[in-house]
Amino acid sequence: MKIKLAAHFLLLLAFSAFMLSEAETQLKPHAIESFTVNYIQKFGNCTYLVVIKTSCDSKNFTRDRISIAFGDAYGNQIYAPRLDDPFTKTFQSCSSDGFQIDGPCATDICYVYLHRSGLDGWEPESVKIISPNSSPVTYDFNTSAPNEDWYGVNLCQIHPPPSPFEPSPPFPLNLRLLLHLLLISIAFPDCSGS
C-alpha cells in the first residue's frame, strides 16, 4: 500500500511540475506580428509613470528608437511613439529611465509591448508601470528586443488563438488540471488506505 501511495505522490508531483513549467513559459516576452496601435481614446485621461530598466548586457548607450504600448483587457491602450533621446542619454546600460505618459484611464494593465528600431541592439531588462487605477506591475524582459517588431508580454488572455494547423484550442490550465485529477482518481480508486 505504501508503494502505491508513493507512486501516486510521485505522479502528482511530476504532473504539478509540468503544469507549473508550462504556466511559466507563457509569461516570457515574445514578438507579435499582428499587433496594431489603437488611437481610440476612452473616457478620462490618466498619467502613468513608466520605468524602463536597461540590461547591463546592453551597449553603453543606444541610438535605437524605442516605442511602448500597454493597456488593459477592455481596449484602453496607452501609446508613446518615441521614448528615446540620444542627446539626454536615455537607455544607457545598467540604468533606469522614467517617463510620464498620458493616455486613456485603464483598469488593470495586462500587456506591454516595446518596439525597437535601429542597429544598436538595445536590451531591456524590465518595464514597471505605475497606474493611478491599479497596483504597479513589472514585466521582465531580460533579452534583446528584436528589430522592427513589437515585442512583449500579454497576460490579458492566458492562451493565444490557435494557429491554423491546430485542430482545437488547448484546455485552460484549471480545466486540464481537474481533468487529470479526475483521471487519476478513476485509475486509482482505492487510495484511501483501507
UniProtKB/TrEMBL annotation:
Any Pfam family matching the protein: ATS3
Keywords: Signal
Signal sequence region: 1-23
Gene3D superfamilies: PLAT/LH2 domain
Name of the featured protein: Uncharacterized protein
Higher taxonomy: Eukaryota, Viridiplantae, Streptophyta, Embryophyta, Tracheophyta
